[in-house]
Amino acid sequence: MRLLLVEDNKPLARALRQGLEEENFAVDWAEDGEEADHKVRTTNYDAVILDLMLPKKDGLTLLKGWRESNISTHVIVLTARGSLDDKVKGLDSGADDYLTKPFELEELLARIRALVRRKHQVKDPILKIYDLEIDTAARSIKRAGKPVHLTPKEYALLEFLAFNRGKVVTRTMIWEHLWDEHDESVSNVVDVYIRYLRNKIDRDFTPQLILTKWGEGYMLRGDDEEEVST
Amino acid sequence: MNSIRRTLLLWVTLLFVSTTVAVGAIVYDSSQDAIKQKWAHSINAANQSYEEKRDEALQEQARLLGRTAQSQFNPDLLPAAHRANQVFLMLNGFLPNSVLTNHYFFVSTRLGPTWSTRTLPLATQLKIDEEIIHREAETAPHEFIQVGGISGGGWVSAALRAGNFVLPPPPIDEGSDIFETRFDDISLPNGKTARRVTIRVPLTKFNTSTFAIISFLGGRPVAAPTPAIKGAIGLAYVIPSRRFGGGTRPAPVPQPAAFDLTVPNLTIQCAWEESGHPILNDLQMKRDAQIQYAHQQLRAELAHLRERLAWLAGFSSVALILGVWFSITVGLRPLNRVTEAVSQITPKDFQLSVDIKKLPSELQPVVDRLSHTLNQLQAAFTREKRAAADISHELRTPLAALRTTLEVTLKKTRSPEQYQEAIQDALTIARSLSRLVDRMLKLAWIDAGSEEVRPEVVEIGPLVQECAAVGKPLAEAQGIKLSCETPNQMIIETDPDKFREIVMNLMHNAIEYNRPGGSVELKAQKSSDGGLILEVIDTGIGMSPETKEKIFERFFRADPSRNATGVHSGLGLAIVKEYVDRLGGRLNVESELGRGSRFRLELPNAS
Description:
Radius of gyration of chain A: 19 Å
Structural class of chain A: alpha/beta
Strand content of chain A: 15-25%
Number of helices of chain A: 8
Oligomer: heterodimer
Distance between the termini of chain A: 26 Å
Structural class of chain B: alpha+beta
Largest sheet of chain A: 5 strands, parallel
Order of helices and strands of chain B: HHEEEHEEHEEEEHEHHHEHEEHEEHHEE
Shape of chain A: elongated
Helix content of chain A: 25-40%
Number of strands of chain A: 12
Helix content of chain B: 40-55%
Largest sheet of chain B: 5 strands, mixed
Number of strands of chain B: 17
Strand order of the largest sheet of chain B: 3-2-1-8-9
Number of domains of chain B: 3
Radius of gyration of chain B: 68 Å
Order of helices and strands of chain A: EHEHEHEHEHEEEEHEHHEE
Shape of chain B: rod-shaped
CATH class of the largest domain in chain A: Alpha Beta
Strand content of chain B: 15-25%
CATH superfamily of the largest domain in chain A: Response regulator
């Protein structure tokens, strides 16, 4: 999941970024309104964490601008203004969620996950693909009832494939959603992680869930998918 | 509770009641006069009517008497006397009741050389039957009648005879017109008053020729034997009253002797007692009844007048109170509109929803002032709200940073270096937080008025130099040249702590809003009036006019991104402004975008 953090307070931004990255979110940071506007308009983020009091361009103006330009990226507003009036104003301007500073890091994470699920129109936190169960709240998986241990990056990759189940996701899409702006681009890193993932969930089980679409990318098997040999 | 409505009503009612009472009193008084006049007129009329009737009755009796007396007079004896060659002498008045009742002539006839003398009754005796006069027996004792000469004599009624007195001479002259009727009031010897009528009636008229009449009156010859004397009926009937006075009364002044020989006449006097005479009593009772009726009428009319006035006052009072109530309600309607408009004011909407042009001119200044105050209040309210939002932002953001830093750090086991870094971050945040809290408290103190000014003698040079020394490393770290110029031996009296705070804040701003290679200049000098002029001049980014207007507002930052250092919480210049005000100084700012700013502080010498 790739997020944009818009926050002008440097110590807060630094701590938040670290916290989010340790939860395997790919995090980009914008320090002021203009930078945030530019990044949102050029990158497809899964969610934006937006502070309202920003230098150069304030958060509410940004939000309104995005909604007017039909940018439907999910936005969690993060602000020190805690009055009901401010919340209403924030939500009316097109925010998907609202969090008042100071906040619990866990709450922010839970809300981001909920937003991502909402983005993929999934309500149940547990995703089921054949005998594979992905608990998006606990960030754990089971195959055929047996728990399988995944590294955060592997989990993020599986979750991304699961949210786009039945659809082909290209390597670029995977790259863009799982790695942030600072990661060096390594050409086969996506393939490497796909291989790790297959070893853990597909090697000892049938059917094979991770399918390769030659020349396009990868896909998680849909319910009516014909088996295609890898 | 004090109510305009009630006060107005009270005053109008009081005014009305006093006016009504005054007007009522005047109306009552004049109406009373008119009614009383009418009453007096009625009483007069009653009296007059009584008197007329009384006098009429009297006159009637007197005329009756006159006719009776006339008819009883017999002059037959006169021709007999005339035929003889005689000399007539008359001694008049030696007999009681001699006027016309018994007139005797002494007739002397010459018989040769001698005169024979004899007496002859000449006049008829006047005999009047009392019953003719008195209608009722009981009226007799109250009627005093005298027929005869002007001063009495002749026939008198039983009451006079019984009382043995005569009536006082009537107010009628000897020579006055015959047929004359005179009324007067007299006092009777019995102490009562009586009404009297006096009339004179002529006796029969006839001719005489040549004989002389010598009359003696009181012994004096008063004769005028002339042929011109005609119609004498014998004669002199002027009887001095003293002869007949009877001693019961003082003798009246003697009447001048007068003879009316042309037409002898008879004087008739009738006097009725005012009290006691049945006819008069009757008339008096009628009169009294009329007067009584007039009295009742008067009382009734006055009562009616009072009643009408009371009703009038009552009705007009009710009408007035209702009218005034209505007028006040109508008059107060604009006030109600204002009240309603005021009651609709909420902290969210400070607008007074009332059209000031439609209000009465008395209310306009109030509403004007109110609107003005409300606008100021709204501005203050908005400022406060923004300040509260700013404060919460300024406090919550570092708190969120602190918390997130600690939470992230605790999420898993970290290396000692990572812990050290996290703690270092937390400490930095805590320091900036405490600086922020310090400044906010300082401003709160200033606002609460508990920040006192403690003037001391301060040497300006070292103090400003000391500030510059603190700022120098900071300036040099950003590639800025800081210079300081102070006068020697300059001493003024001011609060050194506040002055230092002002200098430090201005200097920090000048360094912060500068750019590499720029310069900051601190320049202190004496002013002409013994005070101090301190200038802080920078070659920094400068300010637009809009920014310049806002720099003294709390939490305002010319560049909000520059908050990381914690020095610029947006409160520095707000504190500077408050301190300058406290010290009685002035702070001027000149600035040009991209060229830099010049802050000029003028401080008076407190001593």
